[in-house]
């Protein structure tokens, strides 16, 4: 081995180490986001915490296995021995697949049975794998943090399913569709773990040292500024200037979604801050005005408000990504940097940044189409009268699927499960006074 | 230095880095499991959350120091200067020692005083150190994730103590021996942190890159499949098909225990999935049928059901490990791989995999003997009338050892502490109705 | 490149890797401490959990950005292009800046408005940056874990503000200034995450492999022994020998504060254990005797008892650091070790350890002066009648600034905001009986 080779080898080792570290670290961080972050974020409902954290656990564990299989089959042609290889990259990718389905779960939280959730996940993972392949490989869009691939797809998938499963008699002011004091604190556990580890999420699959570093710091900055505008807008638009926990729990994360695509690009710190700033405003206003509007006029009942946390910021993220890509130039990235960042290699060797911007936009369209189309399809399946979904009166109630401890203010066990979506007359004598 | 040496050094550095990363990462993960995982897993009781998380904290902090000292003394002969060296491996080992005692705490949760817990820990760590030395060094069994060394030992140790401290008048349907809604959600924090970081636990002390990778992925897969079967069995065997939080909190972790020994071997992904699959079933059925049986007929009161989460899966893990070891061959592992994986070096240079299987089985027997024997011994000591354990009526009640805030549904302060195990007549006028 | 160079390069790479790992790992750990640790530690109040975790989130997100800017301006002279560079070291430093302000928040928890908190943070970060520069660069004191720079400064800053904002009519036995059962369990989440990750906090900015290792292990040992003495003292000094959750939540962390300065020095394991041992006693006794004394006689209302968790242990830490530094010698550290550990380079090339001890002590004085002086200054500003701080009757009540879910034992909405510090007559008809 010559000295030159040796020296090169050391440089490579340096890079290898950096990637290894971040892969291992990012994997664990993303894993925490999936199980603790998403799980606890949804515990805010007063009597659906078991369902939130428990079914989240179920979906994630099921989805991981299915995603590993799907990935294996997709890439099985690469190997000659017909075996599926599993490494830490596959585990991260599986977590990403699952994230899309968990986002969708947010829209139908409390209104579906665990069996329906498994069906939602089964199809969701499959659709995700195809959609991801089209966007990243065929269209050659870049999407490190999955603004389009994960967030937009997941959100529209969930919203379309929610639209298909519309429950006209689900009283909007249902006694169970709110939080209690401690359930809101539990939800903050989810918020904080998502918030803290989001930089790892957005930088996990960018495989070059520089891009990874950039992705983490851009995300960090965007998230910081989102918190401030969320608090400001929440206070300004609520009566008496009080803050609303729903906004703090959700909108503070919108910045992370919105820099997902552009995080690995040269978005620059001030760019990240501006994106986060805008997203905090838009997401919070979405919770105040858009969610009630969608429920009333569009027949979309969005329990967790994923439209404001994932769909809208994902949309912004896609646009920001397209613009940042189109504006890229060799003077900023350097020749090698440009090729590395946008992967202008092989078939796409002669790609220009401006065209890349167009491809990014095309990726967004694919994500929306797959989300809405897939959601309507799966919604049709979930309307079949065989899944044991709860009656309107038992929505948002753990009593329907869990053994709930008795000694607290308990809900009378008049449970009804639907055999079809049209709801029969449901007894409404639910408020029997309890004696402690 | 020749070029060959240089090249070798770079390869070594590559390995060194991998080990360093995983040691540091695994240490922190195991640490989180010990303090947050075990601590919160036991908070499910309605009025014993302080004791669960607080005494867990106390035991762990005490145990760590004692374990570091024990390790130092055990290895003090290796050093000439008589000093105890402390490095990150020692800290991981100390966490492992403590894990055994925390498992044992699960069996006696709510029925012992903090002083009894310190005694339990003091002897537990000491027994663990001897037992570990015999199993790993003398018998030369391999046990990366501690299915035998940690889980079986800890569980039988705790169960034997619980048997010695049997309380005949501890009403099985005691008003405090259940959960409330939010205490079950707290317990899920423990479950999830244990579940997510279990791959680090099982791979922490496997010191070769490949084995570590393998251990983490096998554990991950086993845990995933356990979740599915746990949910299925819980739903199938409960009245009305409802899920039981106790199963979700505990049985979902059984797969991690059961692949502990075999995780670093060539168990193969499908092997891990099958082990996890079976363990989910066995552990959940254990909670439904075995725990009540043991309490009624064997006089073993097992508060957390550690028999189903640690003893049974640990037993399965030991068997699976023995079979996997016996089935090992050079064609699968490669010559070097076989030597590295099973450490066929020095005194055990001529060991054959089939014989290794026998040694694994012998290790299991030692773990059981130490657990039961040690538990009976320590149980005798804990029956001495000097430890201030709570009367039957004050079991599962934080009021006995903690200043509890008053404003919630409070428990009347008729506290009695035992001076001996035979309980005197205890006033039972505990149910004074409270007015809020 | 010669072989010697190559060999040196490999050694350097080894060090680089270690630093890289620990920087990335420590950053994430410190980040978790800031958001989850500090946030949940303060949730113990029965009706101020939203404020605790939510305003902690707000302050931290705001402070991070401000701290990044401040750092950039401070170091802008180093760069020729006028741009602010952001790397992972800056993010860690920003977290450290924020930590000081969050400590200060502990003293005024529940008694100030979010706007006041933002002002507190704005000035706190600025003062911190100047104070840190003086202590570390001009005085050349060493303070890896920030016993002086972070903890003493933050604590005295908060206490001075609390003294300026003294509320004479804040009834000491206010119905809201206590915990409920589950709020205490939430606070334990904060305690445990702080406790587990404290070794990373103290070792994050020590940039040499050895010192970092040493800092982590010393902190680990000190924390372990603190837990034991805290439990012992809490039990001994309370009526009926019961443990107090306040001590377990707070005093168990005092050891980490107290070894902050000396952690990277050759404190030796037994030294750490002794420091932790003493701090557990002093901190717990502080909660029992000192906090009531200060509230009664010194007009300092310290909601979280930061005097006992940060000021006192920080003071001890400063002293221990000065003594350990003064006692340093080449025979223990080695010539190179001494220079590396104490950074005896450049302007301070001829520094002697004994003199370094004096500089350490000088650093303490600067920290106290900045804390108290800055606190009085900012306290004056916060007394201006424009910040919308809550009336005495609405202190410790989320109702003042948050939309609180209604269905729990609710507090009547007679809210008053102060326009000046002198409180007008406040209606006290607060105890309307609720019917569930």
TrEMBL record, chains A, B, C:
One of the GO biological process terms: ammonium homeostasis
TM ranges: 15-42, 48-69, 90-109, 115-136, 148-166, 186-205, 217-237, 270-290, 361-384
Signal peptide per UniProt: none
Superkingdom of origin organism: Eukaryota
Subcellular location as annotated: Cell membrane
The entry's keywords: Ammonia transport, Cell membrane, Glycoprotein, Membrane, Transmembrane, Transmembrane helix, Transport
An annotated Gene Ontology molecular function: ammonium channel activity
A cellular component term, taken from the record's GO annotations: plasma membrane
Membrane topology listed for this record: Multi-pass membrane protein
Residue stretches making up the Ammonium transporter AmtB-like domain: 20-401
Pfam families to which the protein is assigned, alphabetical: Ammonium_transp
Family affiliation: Belongs to the ammonium transporter (TC 2.A.49) family. Rh subfamily.
Known function: Functions as an ammonia transporter. May play a role in the elimination of ammonia in the gill.
Protein name: Rh family C glycoprotein
Species: Cynoglossus semilaevis
């Amino acid at each position: 081995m010559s000295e030159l080779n040796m020296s090169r080898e050391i440089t490579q080792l340096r890079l290898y180490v950096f990637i290894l570290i971040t892969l291992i670290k990012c994997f664990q961080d993303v894993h925490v986001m999936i199980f603790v972050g998403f799980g606890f974020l949804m515990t805010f409902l007063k009597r659906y915490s078991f369902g939130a954290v428990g079914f989240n656990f179920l979906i994630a564990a099921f989805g991981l296995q299915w995603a590993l299989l799907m990935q294996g089959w997709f890439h099985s042609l690469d190997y000659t021995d017909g075996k599926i290889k599993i490494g830490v990259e596959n585990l991260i990718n599986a977590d990403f697949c699952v994230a899309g389905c968990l986002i969708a779960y947010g829209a139908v939280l409390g209104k579906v049975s665990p069996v329906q959730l498994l069906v939602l996940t089964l199809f969701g993972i499959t659709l995700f794998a195809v959609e991801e392949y089209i966007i990243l490989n065929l269209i050659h869009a870049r999407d490190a943090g999955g603004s389009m691939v994960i967030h937009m797809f997941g959100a529209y998938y969930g919203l379309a399913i929610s639209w298909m499963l519309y429950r006209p008699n689900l009283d909007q002011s249902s006694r169970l569709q709110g939080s209690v004091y401690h359930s809101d604190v539990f939800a903050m556990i989810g918020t904080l773990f998502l918030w803290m580890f989001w930089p790892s999420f957005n930088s996990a699959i960018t495989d070059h040292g520089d891009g990874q570093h950039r992705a983490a710091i851009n995300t960090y900055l965007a998230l910081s500024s989102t918190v401030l505008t969320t608090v400001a807008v929440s206070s300004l638009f609520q009566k008496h200037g009080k803050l609303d926990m729903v906004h703090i729990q959700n909108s503070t994360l919108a910045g992370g979604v919105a820099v997902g695509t552009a995080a690995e690009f040269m978005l620059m710190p001030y760019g990240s801050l501006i994106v986060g700033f805008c997203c905090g405003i838009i997401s919070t206003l979405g919770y105040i005005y858009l969610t009630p509007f969608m429920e009333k006029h569009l027949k979309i009942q969005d329990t967790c408000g994923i439209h404001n946390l994932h769909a809208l910021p994902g949309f912004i993220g896609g646009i920001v990504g397209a613009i940042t890509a189109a504006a890229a130039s060799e003077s900023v990235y350097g020749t090698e940097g440009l090729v590395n960042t946008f992967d202008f290699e092989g078939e796409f060797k002669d790609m220009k940044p401006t065209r890349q911007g167009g491809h990014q936009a095309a990726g967004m369209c694919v994500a929306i189409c797959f989300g809405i189309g897939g959601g309507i399809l799966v919604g049709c399946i979930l309307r079949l009268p065989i899944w044991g979904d709860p009656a309107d009166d038992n929505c948002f109630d753990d009593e329907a699927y869990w053994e709930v401890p008795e000694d607290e203010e308990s809900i009378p066990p008049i449970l009804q499960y639907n055999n079809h979506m049209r709801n029969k007359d449901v007894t409404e004598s639910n408020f029997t006074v309890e004696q402690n």
